[in-house]
């Protein structure tokens, strides 16, 4: 197929939805028929904190969902799709385009870094913890957990994350919290504090230590299934199931069945304040696990934190066997005056906190 025969157009939900779903499946089984889609790409635009706190928000475009059927790869289709999306970003006055990929995805890294001029920006960690439906964690008796309404959560996030967190969607956080897939926002604080109305009004009288997070039900949008697992993972899965069955006194949790489609909860907006807040983050994570046990479809809980954020990562329960220590975020300046700023951003150490938009997971 030559370039002259390739047509790139906007997505039409009425006529393209089923065809795109079929394309996703064929990307896995490498089959292609006549008169079918050969590639697809998605993009979203928002304003986020990417500069220093004193600078205004940047308008960024996120590149996601790039798919080309196997028989038509290495023909430049992916390259043309990204460039077409970049043209759309530029027409919308976007400052930067960015994308996330696995650091071991050689084809993706080569396309974006070598051919499209993107540069490495951040390397966050993806933390995964399995849901054990037969186990309920006990929360600390000296820690209280309360659910916030959307207005309270939005106010807290804007006050405490906007000036310290990269990629925080200041204008859009309310829409994220109100999304039907967002299950809610919870805060943990020392038991005995009277916080009635505090989170929605006087934020200056918060306790010295507290923590918060929000939960997104990704399983309502799509399902995952493990195609190829490391031998070590398979051995542990089977052996732990046997031990759990015949020697329950060992209390060894088994890995859930990942070989059939399953959903997951995504914890986002994880934030803590104060010297004892790490324990409160862990308590919130246990609370989310207990909540997930009531959803038979939810097999794992996932969160993503900044690569340098050890102060947060150590308090989030996760299995190294299932987690990814280094995801890769790449970025590109679409305006000439932003290129110098981008060069400076990539040369300085990243800020500790990183906000990962659950809509882009």
Assign the CATH class of the largest domain.
Answer: Alpha Beta
Count structural domains. Answer: 2
Question: From the alpha-carbon coordinates, what is the Rg to the nearest angstrom?
Answer: 22 Å
Proportion of helical residues: 25-40%
- Strand content is 25-35%
Distance between the termini: 32 Å
Oligomer: single chain
Average pLDDT level: 81
Write the CATH homologous superfamily of the largest domain: Gcn5-related N-acetyltransferase (GNAT)
What is the name of the CATH topology of the largest domain? Aminopeptidase
Which regions are unreliable across 5 or more consecutive residues at pLDDT < 50? 26-33
Q: Number of helical segments?
A: 9
Largest sheet: 6 strands, mixed
Question: Main sheet: which strands, in order across?
Answer: 5-11-10-9-8-6
The CATH architecture name of the largest domain reads 3-Layer(aba) Sandwich
- Class of secondary structure makeup: alpha+beta
- Give the overall silhouette: globular
Pfam families: Acetyltransf_1
GO molecular function, one term: acyltransferase activity, transferring groups other than amino-acyl groups
Protein name: N-acetyltransferase domain-containing protein
InterPro entries: Acyl_CoA_acyltransferase (IPR016181), GNAT_dom (IPR000182), Plant_NAT (IPR052810)
């Amino acid at each position: 197929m030559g370039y002259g025969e390739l047509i790139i157009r906007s997505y039409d939900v009425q006529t393209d939805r089923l065809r795109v779903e079929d394309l996703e499946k064929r990307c896995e089984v490498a089959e292609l028929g006549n008169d079918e889609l050969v590639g697809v790409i998605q993009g979203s635009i928002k304003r986020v904190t990417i500069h220093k706190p004193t600078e205004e928000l940047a308008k960024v475009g996120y590149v996601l969902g790039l798919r080309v059927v196997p028989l038509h790869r290495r023909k430049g289709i992916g390259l043309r799709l990204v460039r077409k999306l970049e043209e759309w970003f530029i027409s919308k006055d976007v400052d930067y385009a960015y994308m996330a990929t696995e650091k071991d995805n050689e084809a993706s890294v080569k396309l974006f870094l070598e051919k499209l001029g993107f540069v490495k920006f951040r390397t966050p960690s993806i933390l995964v913890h399995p849901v054990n439906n037969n186990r309920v964690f006990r929360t600390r008796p000296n820690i209280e957990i309360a659910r916030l309404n959307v207005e309270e959560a939005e106010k807290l996030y804007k006050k405490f994350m906007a000036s310290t967190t990269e990629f925080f969607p200041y204008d859009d956080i309310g829409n994220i919290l109100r999304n039907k897939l967002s299950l809610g926002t919870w805060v943990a604080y020392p038991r005995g504090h009277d916080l009635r109305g505090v989170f929605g009004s006087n934020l200056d009288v918060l306790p010295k230590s507290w923590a918060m997070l929000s939960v997104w039900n990704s399983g309502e949008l799509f399902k995952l299934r493990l195609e190829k697992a490391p031998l070590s993972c398979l051995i542990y899965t089977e052996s732990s199931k046997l031990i759990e069955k015949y020697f329950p006194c060992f209390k060894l949790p088994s890995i859930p069945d990942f070989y059939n489609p399953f959903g997951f909860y995504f914890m986002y907006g994880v934030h803590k304040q104060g010297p004892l807040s790490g324990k409160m983050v862990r308590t919130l994570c246990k609370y989310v696990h207990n909540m997930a046990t009531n959803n038979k479809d939810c097999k794992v809980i996932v969160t993503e934190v900044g690569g340098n954020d050890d102060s947060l990562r150590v308090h989030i329960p996760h299995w190294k066997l299932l987690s990814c220590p280094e995801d890769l975020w790449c970025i590109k300046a679409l305006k000439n005056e932003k290129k110098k700023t981008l060069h400076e951003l990539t040369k300085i150490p990243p800020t500790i906190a990183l906000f990962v938009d659950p809509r882009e997971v």
